[in-house]
From TrEMBL:
Residues 122-248 form the RNase H type-1 domain. One of its GO terms (molecular function) is nucleic acid binding. This is RNase H type-1 domain-containing protein. Gene3D superfamilies: Ribonuclease H-like superfamily/Ribonuclease H. It comes from the Eukaryota. InterPro entries: RNaseH-like_sf, RNaseH_domain, RNaseH_sf. It comes from Araneus ventricosus.
Length: 282
């Protein structure tokens, strides 16, 4: 079997099974437990490398690029403590005050879990095109308002470097919704982000930021239509250009860091811990 396929199989099946419940037990491993994890992992590392059985587990980890299980278990524990428990004991990794919040599904009002917006409402006062952009770790979004196919107003905003383009797309939609409510007008909002529309339509999102967007849309649903627009439509091309411009000249706009950012930081944590573990190996 292809080595890459073997690694995918390991990460998606074996590692998940071995680390089941690590969010609870991963932070307090004894030496015996660590050794037990390594001995189980070693079986698979030998299969991947076909190395001599005398090869050390540490060397096998390096050869496969698969980190030691006890370090991954600790990262799973930390992720749960930060994301679900909102613990500040790991603020050296990331300040939880800057992070999006986990929301249990039971805490979300049932009427807001499923939002079915019309793709287009009749007699809309304005057509609004929204877009988000991320270039070289910089993120921004734009909201372009059109009246009778004439661009009358553009709003440009710059986000933090840790914000994702997905968040930018959602923030743009939310801004357009709030603008319609504030101005007491009906609008059709057009986005080229299918992922944003899917998140709005999903009943299973646990992100406080996404649920806040959904809540605002729910309150304004009789005033707003939301549709996916093809690339190449003039209004969408305008929003795309303005979103790129927002990265350098947009007004500062604050939204929390996404869960994906925390996962990225924990990948770095694993690498750093692995380096320390390797350097202490004799």
């Amino acid at each position: 079997m292809n080595k890459n396929l073997l690694k995918i199989w390991y990460y998606t099946v074996i590692e998940k099974a071995l680390l089941y419940g690590a969010s609870v037990w991963g932070g307090t491993l004894t030496k015996n437990q660590i050794d037990r994890l390594h001995s189980i992992q070693r079986i698979f590392l030998l299969k991947f490398t076909r190395a001599f059985r005398t090869s050390s587990t540490n060397v096998l980890n390096v050869l496969t690029g698969i980190p030691p299980l006890h370090i991954v278990a600790k990262a799973e524990f930390i992720k749960f403590r930060i994301w679900v428990n909102r613990s500040n004991e790991y603020n050296t990794i990331f300040d939880i005050n800057l992070l999006d919040k986990y929301v249990p599904l039971k805490n979300i009002p049932s009427r807001q879990k499923l939002i079915n917006l019309d793709s287009k409402i009749s007699n809309a006062d304005y057509e609004i095109y929204t877009d988000g952009s991320r270039i070289e770790n910089e993120t921004g979004f734009a909201v372009c308002i059109l009246k009778d196919e004439i661009n009358i107003q553009n709003y440009l905003f710059k986000l933090n470097t840790f914000n994702s383009v997905f968040q930018a797309e959602l923030a743009a939609i939310e801004f357009a919704v709030n603008w319609a409510v504030k101005e007491k007008v009906k609008v059709n909002i057009h986005t080229d982000s299918l992922s944003s529309i899917s998140a709005i339509n999903s009943a299973n999102t646990r992100s406080e930021f996404v649920n806040k967007v959904k809540s605002n849309i729910f309150k304004a649903k009789n005033m707003v239509g939301l549709s996916w627009v093809h690339v190449g439509i003039p209004g969408n091309e305008l929003a795309d250009q303005q979103a790129k411009l927002a990265i350098t000249s947009g007004e500062k706009f604050v939204i929390p860091a996404p869960y994906s950012h925390l996962k990225g930081l924990l990948k770095n944590y694993i690498v750093n811990e692995w380096n320390e573990y390797w350097n202490s190996y004799d």
